[in-house]
Each structure stands twice: as C-alpha cells, then as structure tokens.
C-alpha cells in the first residue's frame, strides 16, 4: 500500500482549524432546529386545524427532499431570487436548521403524546394555563423520554455537515479536499478527517449518556 501520512503533517494545523469551523455552524443549526422543532411540535398538537396542516406540510417537505438539495436551493436560489449574496455559513445554518427542525418536531411531538394524559387533565382541573403546563410539566417530562432520539439526531447532523463542502464552506471535509488537491494524495487527508469526525461523534455520544444519566437520577 502506497500510504505516506507524513505528506499531510504540514497541513494538520489547517485541517484542525476545520473542527471549530464545522462545530460553529453545527451548534447554531442544532439550537435553531431545536427551537423551531419545538414550535412545530406544539403546532402539530394544536386544536387549530390550519396550524396542524402547516406543521405537517413543513415536515413533509423537509423530510421528503434531500438535505443537499435544500442546501443548494438556499445557496444558489436566494441570490437569484432576492439579489442577496448569501454566505456559505448562513446557507449551512438555514439548510441544516430547517431540515433538523422537521425531524426534531416529530421526536418532540411523540414525546409529548407519550406523557400520561392524566397529568394534563390534572393540570387543567387545577386551572393551570396551557403555556405554563407545557413549559413546567409536559415538556420537561417529554425531554427525558426523547433525549436519546434527540442526541441521535444531533449526531446525524454532525456527520451530515460534511456536505457543506459542496458549496465551498471550509469545514473539515473541504479542508481534506484542499489538502488532497495540493499534495495529490487524497486518501490520507480523508482518513485523517474521518478519524476526527469519529472522535466528535464519540464525544457527543458520551455527553448524551452523561446528560441522560443525570436526568434519570434527578427524578
């Protein structure tokens, strides 16, 4: 095998800079997706049919089309339709956040509906406002039940972040391609970046287990 990792040693600092570049937009996308997903989940269980329809249609569109297509549409269509030269960073946040919110909304909706209906009825009997009931009673319990599914969605988002390299965003994957083109050796930088992605996923997995354990013992 013609492998020589020493060729990429001078480029390691350049590649490692991609960790923060990748995490920066992934973290913002996760926060954006979680907030929007929670709102969509509440719309789905609303008694107002038009809100149900809107949330279901939104989920259907973003779950039914490829993420890379959504990214391309935002990056290329926004300048064409509005004249605004959107950056790869903002395009990535919007595409990943909007896509993730569709999946998160289904996870949260299932978590809310899994909470014992007796608690909702008891809160209503006590005259607790709907917003307070959701914020202080239903959502905290739902989050405990759906935490593993949420962590899985966040891990998936981190791995899929590599597709932003297609719009020139200098994430880990793009930096590996740059190094490969510069050294004429693609296998070594790709393997190195793959190892970094694996480390990131393992760290997220361990963090999820720690949070899950703490929430479990906080009952």
Q: What does this 3D model show about the protein?
A:
The structure is a single chain. Helix 2 crosses helix 4 (88-114) and helix 6 runs antiparallel to helix 8 (187-217). The protein has a domain at 21-169: MetI-like fold (Orthogonal Bundle), CATH 1.10.3720. It is built from eight helices and no strands. The protein is mainly α and 219 residues long. The protein is flat, with a radius of gyration of 21 Å. The protein starts with 11 loop residues before the first helix and ends with a helix.
Short description:
By secondary structure, the protein is mostly helical. It has helices at 12-44, 49-64, 67-82, 88-114, 117-125, 130-160, 172-183, 187-217.
Which blocks of ≥5 consecutive residues have pLDDT under 50? none
Main sheet summary: none
List SSEs in N-to-C order: HHHHHHHH
Q: End-to-end distance, in Å? A: 55 Å
Helices, by number, come to 8
Mean pLDDT: 88
Key attributes of the depicted protein:
219 residues, mainly alpha, MetI-like fold, 8 helices
Give the SSE map.
Elements lengths: L11 H33 L4 H16 L2 H16 L5 H27 L2 H9 L4 H31 L11 H12 L3 H31 L2
Helix pairs in contact: 1-2, 1-4, 1-7, 2-4, 3-4, 4-6, 5-6, 6-8, 7-8
């Amino acid at each position: 095998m013609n492998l020589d990792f020493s060729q990429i040693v001078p480029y390691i600092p350049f590649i490692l800079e991609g960790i923060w570049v990748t995490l920066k937009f992934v973290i913002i996308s996760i926060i954006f997706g979680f907030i929007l997903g929670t709102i969509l989940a509440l719309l789905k269980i609303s008694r107002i049919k038009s809100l149900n329809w809107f949330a279901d249609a939104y989920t259907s569109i973003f779950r039914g089309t490829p993420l890379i297509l959504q990214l391309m549409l935002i990056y290329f269509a926004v300048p064409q339709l509005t004249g605004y030269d959107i950056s790869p960073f903002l395009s990535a946040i919007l595409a990943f956040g909007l896509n993730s919110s569709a999946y998160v909304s289904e996870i949260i909706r299932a978590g809310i509906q899994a909470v014992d209906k007796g608690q909702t009825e008891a809160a209503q009997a006590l005259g607790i406002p709907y917003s307070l009931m959701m914020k202080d009673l239903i959502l905290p319990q739902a989050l405990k039940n759906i935490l593993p599914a949420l962590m899985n969605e966040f891990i998936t988002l981190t791995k899929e972040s590599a597709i932003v390299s297609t719009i020139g965003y200098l994430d880990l994957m793009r930096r590996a391609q740059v190094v490969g083109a510069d050294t004429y050796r693609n296998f070594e930088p790709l393997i190195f970046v793959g190892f970094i992605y694996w480390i990131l996923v393992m760290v997220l997995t361990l963090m999820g287990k720690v949070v899950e354990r703490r929430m479990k013992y906080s009952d």
